[in-house]
Amino acid sequence: RVARRACLAAMAAARLGRLRGPLAAAFSSAAAAGAGGPPPHAKLTVRRQAGGVRNIILNNPRKRNALSLSMLQSLREDLLHDVKSKDLRVIIISAEGPVFCSGHDLKELSSEDDVKHHSQVFEICAEVMTLIQKLPVPVIAKVNGLATAAGCQLVASCDIAVASEKSQFATPGVNIGLFCSTPAVALGRSLPRKVALEMLFTGEPLSAQEALMHGLVSKVVPEDKLEEETMKISHKICESSKSVLALGKATFYRQMTQDLDTAYRMTTQVMVDNLTLRDGQEGIEAFIQKRKPVWSHSQDEKK
């Protein structure tokens, strides 16, 4: 009996180690090293676009795709590039390597850098996170691996998130004396308060299924189906009018901050405004005429 209890305890400890080991390694980007990363001259993010879909790939797996100042600047540039083009309909953010994003590069947050540099890192991070929700196209996080601290914040900030079954999400800053206060902004708006606070207070991760249950991600699929499912959503978005989606996205985030009566007054007017758009009338006419709409994707009003 004693031997059996000892065996069970050892198995439990092993399971815990398997969970915490990679989580700690992912968060501590300063310790990241080895093969698999881009050469020194390579971009920290890679931008590819085809068929209305822009893929932005975090491309520094050697550093667990940490959100260094340079990484954040590169991500911001790729998000904003030609964003008003009618050819851009949806953005996907994914990552190279087994870690989606480990959060901030801790080397940049050490006492070797001054307060001005620390402020710059957090300010551009906040800018990128809020930019995602201000863009006129839907942004999808395609997560295949760990997303910790500001990496978890990035997932929570996207409009849609599709994750593989092996993905995990955590805000473990409390374990190294740096509470995840800025990630808490996005988490607190995506998760029930008590779930968000448990993550923030303990640093313990959510599994992909737990993240789905609590609303941090939209879908969880097997790893070999992640690309297919993400593109399926993207192609469906591409079937709609860019101008109508842009109006709808902006309105959704605006009304979420308002009380119920104000939200209904505002959205009532937006529905009227939507009808004045060329694509608003085109969609209704196409439905009545039983044909496929031909979108202009413009903000022009119907004459």
Automatic annotation (TrEMBL):
One of its GO terms (cellular component) is mitochondrion. Its main location: mitochondrion. GO terms for molecular function: hydro-lyase activity. It comes from the Eukaryota. It is found in: Mitochondrion. GO terms for biological process: fatty acid metabolic process. Keywords: Fatty acid metabolism, Lipid metabolism, Mitochondrion, Transit peptide. The keyword Lyase does not apply. Belongs to the enoyl-CoA hydratase/isomerase family. May play a role in fatty acid biosynthesis and insulin sensitivity. This is Enoyl-CoA hydratase domain-containing protein 3, mitochondrial. It comes from Strix occidentalis caurina (northern spotted owl).
